[in-house]
Amino acid sequence: MAANPQKLKKVKEFGRRDILMSMALVPDSPRLLAGSFDFNVYEFDFEAEKPEQPKRELKGHRSYVTGVALTESHIVTASYDRHMIWWDRESGEQTKRVRAHDKWLRGVEVSPDGKTLASVADDMVARLWDAKTGKPLHELRDHKPMTPHHYPSMLFCCAFSPDGNVLATGDKVGQVCLWDVKTGKLIKTVESPKCYTWDPRQRRHSIGGIRSLAFSPDGKTLAVGGMDQVGNIDHLGGKARFELFDWQNGKSVHDYQADKFKGLVEHMAFSPDGKWLALGGGDNGGLLIFFDLETKKEIKTEKAPMHIHEFAFSADHETLYAVGHNKIALYELKD
Amino acid sequence: MSSAKRKTFCGSPEHTLSRRAFLGAAAGVAAAPIAADMTQLDVLQESALAGELKKRQKHCILLWLAGGASQLETWDPKPGVETGGPFDKIKTNVPGTHISELLPKMSRRMDKTCIIRSLNTRDGGHGGGAQLMMRGRKDEPNLVYPDLGAVLAKELGRADSKVPDYVEFYSQTEGRSSARLTPGFLGARYAPVKLYEQMSPPNMSLPKSVDADDHAARAHLRDFMSRRFAAGRKSSALESHADAYARITGLMSSRDLFDIEKESKQARLRYGPSQFGQQALMARRMVEAGVPFVRVSRAWWDSHGQNFETHLELVSELDHVMSTLLDDLDERGLLKHTLVITLGEFGRTPRINASLGRDHFATAWSCSLSGCGIVGGAVYGKTDAKGEKVVDGEIGAGELFATIYEALGIKHDKEYHVGSRPIPLVNPGIKPVRDVLT
Questions:
Q1: What is the nearest CA distance from A125 to chain B, expressed in angstroms?
Q2: What's the pLDDT tens digit per position in B378-390?
Q3: Domains and CATH numbers, chain A
Q4: HEC string of A72-122?
Q5: Staple partner for B153: which of A61, A146, A329, B165, CB 3.0–4.6 Å?
Q6: Contact at CB, B304 and A62, closer than 8 angstroms
């Protein structure tokens, strides 16, 4: 059986008091680790009698937990408190705590082989780390610290290519940098400026930025997610948006704006065969969109029960786990 | 000292300081609390005399945070609770006082600033909230109260001053109409000079077809005819008409006041590249020249979505601009005579919405007062652990206004009259917050 987005169906939904900002699925298990705005990391077991009750809590951060990554031996978390913490996967004990950046960490990702971690933060630096030892490997600097309008910029997200050789990083004003993971050298930049709305007149500040990145399974296409230009920047009122790049040639190959949904595309994932792309995010409400990359049409759109901050598929892609504002939701995509 | 090299306000040789001009102006100082027109401002270049002038007049600069800044991301941080948001609190140079980490520069200047953390103003609408927080009370059906600037223009300005009494910067368009200023029952004499589209009022220069002599001759003729017409007549409209001409003439002679290019490059760089920063510099320039009240509006803080990113931008800017302004005023000996206020129409909800925004909240929010008449380092009032309600020292707009008036040396229970009806500056029974007043 293959995952079929057209069969998308919500099967469970759990209410929570907190906002879950990040997550990682434990491979080959019904368990999920989620980073919360209450500074904790929670582990949920969806086969437990009361799956809504966390199986364990990891306490150690001092601000929102915005990134969760799993290595062979550790849970690695990133937070606005500027720290990364390595937790033993079995015992939940902290084994390493590092002040990783000078400003908010926006996320942490693990390479496909599990050996390298990448962190991004509002100090506009991306860092590569040895996943096992926590040793810093490279410091990646090219994103500008200030926007063209003299305000602090932000570095929201990163993604490894499927072969683990390239890291993409995306910032507030729409610049994507592509880095050679082995050398730490900048390979290429691409621009998606529509993600950034600067209102020079009516409200005189900005909103938006690149909020999600994903490589296609063949590594040739890079999806860049965010929100289209906004009229009223008081709200997440722009159309949910992503842009596809043939990144090696620096070419934009498709630009999508959702007709039905407004808000940020907070997370994206390609199907294993590269035929569709899943998007999650939202404004005050939530969105899930499945997009056919051959026909360039929506396969399925779904109003999610909450603004989704992150989601992940089970190994067979037949179950989707999403976390976000006050909720966890599970969907099935079984044919 | 060579008079040719001396820097004058307008730069004209006629306005360089001669011994006679100095003595004449000095005599003027003895008789009048502030410069009567911009020609006297040349005298401000002389430090002793400037110092004498500065001691006499009080001023107010209102940094109007239009749209509603979050108290939790500025003056009343609550890190570690579900309403607190992601920003940490930092120590200040006042032991025991913490403010948001977004205000690192202000954290080193809190000894000059008082925080009020206990505003409960009960109006969470932009229009109603802005009117309330600019007038200190709600209008009555048949009575429009003057706003803060109009009252201070009347109380701190000088009747024959040709320098504007009341200047407003509001360059963004959002909220401009809801925060509209009014002199209310004080009348148009105390309406602000509005600087929306540019830094100076339009038509400050003579048209090309009219030279200065021609302009003076026309003014003389108009004055002659007005006096003849007014002879034997008693009308406030006639007086107002003549007064308006006199003020326009004064404004036109003040054109250098509105020219930011007259400030040094160093001063402009110091305030930073933002529009807000440059307007704050202009406010300092105006206060130094004798303008009693300047509102510098910075819209738009209405962060229903992405509150934290918005505040990262706007509070960082506020931190730089406000700290620079306080330093600059202090270095020029003006801070102890100038009250700097940060205020908006309300604060923002402790609850964080699904767009990671905060909504309107008038129940428990904060403002700051720095400088003139204020106990630096004071913190007045307290909110509960989540910032949801005031638990100590609750005050409304009236008490805040009474405090502002007293800080500027104006009795809060002073009365005006509308017809025969006495109208106190604040509603009867309202008291200032004495704890924060020197």
A1: 18
A2: 999 999 999 999 9
A3: 5-332 (2.130.10.10)
A4: CCEEEEEECCCEEEEEECCCCCEEEEEECCCCCEEEEEECCCCCEEEEEEC
A5: B165
A6: no
